[in-house]
Specification:
The protein is mainly α. Among the domains are: 197 residues; 51 residues.
Length: 565
Amino acid sequence: MADFDQRLLDLERRLESVERSVEDRNAGAPAPPIPGRYESSVDDVKHKEDAKRVVTPPPLPFRKKESETWQWLGERWIPALGVLLLLFSAGWFLRYAFTSLWMTPLLRIVGSGIGSAVLAVIGCWLLQRRRVAGQLLTALGALGLLLTTYTAHSYYGMIGGFSAFAAMVVIVGVTFGIALVYRAQGVAILAGIGAVVIPSLVAINSTPSFLVNYILMIDVALVLMAVARHWGWLLVVAWLGTMRYNGALLPLPEWQAYSLAAAYYAIFFVGSACGILYSASRWRGQASLGILLSAVMLYVWLEELVPERAHSLVLIAAAGWTLVPASLLQVWTKEWTERRQLAAWVLGLTAIAFVSTAVIKEFSGATEVRVLFLEALALVAIAKYLFREPAVMRWTSLCFLVPVVMTLSMPWLTARPFDATFITLCVAAATLGAVALMHAWNLGDAKEGSGAHFLLTLISVGFAMYAAVIIWDATHHYIGSREGAIAAALITYTGAGVGLMFLGVTQGISRWRAGGILILVAVLARLLLVDVWVMAPVTRMITFAVVGALLVATVFFERGRTSTK
C-alpha cells in the first residue's frame, strides 16, 4: 500500500512540472492579432461564386464497343482465308495446266519457283502491316519453294540428291532468318518442320551418324530460338522430329547411342528449364510440356536400346504423359477470353451434333436428320453467344423460326421453279426480306443491347438462307448441273455475308457485322469440308477464286473503319 502511495505522489509531481512548463511557454509567445472587419469587393464576390459553380465537362461521343471475337475474325482471319482460297484456286489452275500439257516440265519448275518466291516476298512485306496474312503468305511461299525443289528432284530428275538437299537447307535457313527478324512464330514452326522432313524428301546416301548429327544440329537451333524468342512450340517440333529419326540410333555402337540419347535429353531439359525459370509466365506451360516430352523421348529410346527394361519404362512414360493434359489445360484456361469461349462452344456443339446424328442415323436410317440437327444446334449456339438476355432471346428466336418451321417438311433441294414448294420458299424469303427492311428502317437509335440488332441479324441470315436455296433450285433446274447450282448458292451466300458485313462496318453496328461473318464462316466450312471433294476441277477453281476475291475485299472495309476512327 505504501508503494502505491509513493507512485501516486510521483505522478502528481510530474503533472505539476508539465503544467508549469506549458505556462512558461505560453507567457513568452506573442499574442495573436485581433481580426478586423473585412469588406468584400464586387470582384471577390464574383470570384467566390465562380468557384462554387461545378464545371461539368461535355459528354464524350458515344462509341459502340465491338466484340473481341468478331473484330479478330473480321480483321485477320476472313481476309487471310480469302487469300488461302485464291492460292488454292491458283494451284488447281496450275495443276490443270500441267495435266493439259500447256507447259513443259522446265517451265513448270521455273514458274512454280518464281511464284513461290514472289509469294514469300509479299508475305515479308505484309509482316509489318498484317501479321496473320504476312505469316501465312511467307509460310506458303517457303513451302512452295521446298515442294518445287522436291518435284525437280524426285519427279523430273533435274537435280541430284545432294544439290536438292543443299537447296532445301538454304531455303529453310532463309526462312528461319525471316522468322527471327520479324518475330514470326508461325513461320519459324513451318521452317522447323521443313528442316526435320528434309532427309525424308531427298534421297541421299547418308550414314546413321550423318543423320543423327544433322538432327542434333537442328535440335540445338530450335531450342536456342525457343529460349531466345519464347517460342515454346519449337520444342515440340524438335521433339517430334527427333522421334521421327530415333531409329537411326540403333545401328550405332552402344556407347555412342547412349551418349547421343543423353545429349538429346540434356538439350531438351536445359532449354525447357530456361523457359520455365527465365521466360514469361505465359510460356511456362509450354516449357513444362517440353520437359515432359523430353523425358518420354528418353524413356522410349532406352526402351528400344534396352528391351529388358521395357515394362517399367513404359509405366513411367505413361505416368509422365498423364501430366501433359494438365499442363495444356493450365495454359488453355489461364486466360479464358471471349474467343476461347466461342471456340469451346463450337467444338462442343460440333462433337455433340456428330455423335447424336450418328446414333439417330444408325437407328432410324434418316439422312436429312443430320443437317436439321446441325442447323438447330447452330441456331442455339448463335443465340447463346450473340445475345445473353433470356426473355428477348426467346421471343426473337420464335419470330425467326416461324417461317423456318413452316417450311421444314418441304423438299427444299428438289423444288422446281413455280411449283408449290418453290413458291412457298419465295414467299418465305420475301417475307423475311420485307421484315428485315422495315426493321432496319425503323431501327433508329436503338441501343446495342435492346435486341433490335440481334433480331435484324437473325432475319437477315434467314433471308440469305432462303435466297441461296431458291437460286440453287433455279440454277439446278435450268442448267441441269448440281455443281453449278452449289457454286451459285455459295457465291450468293458469300455476297450476302460480305454485304451484311459491309453494312455493319459502315453503320457501326456490330450485330450486322457478326451476322455477315457467320455467313462467311458457313461458306468456308462448306467449301473446305464438303465441296472441295465433290466438285469438278474447273467448277471448284472458279468457285474458290470468286469466293476468295470477295473475302479478300473485306480487308478494305476494315481499313476504312480504322481510318475513320
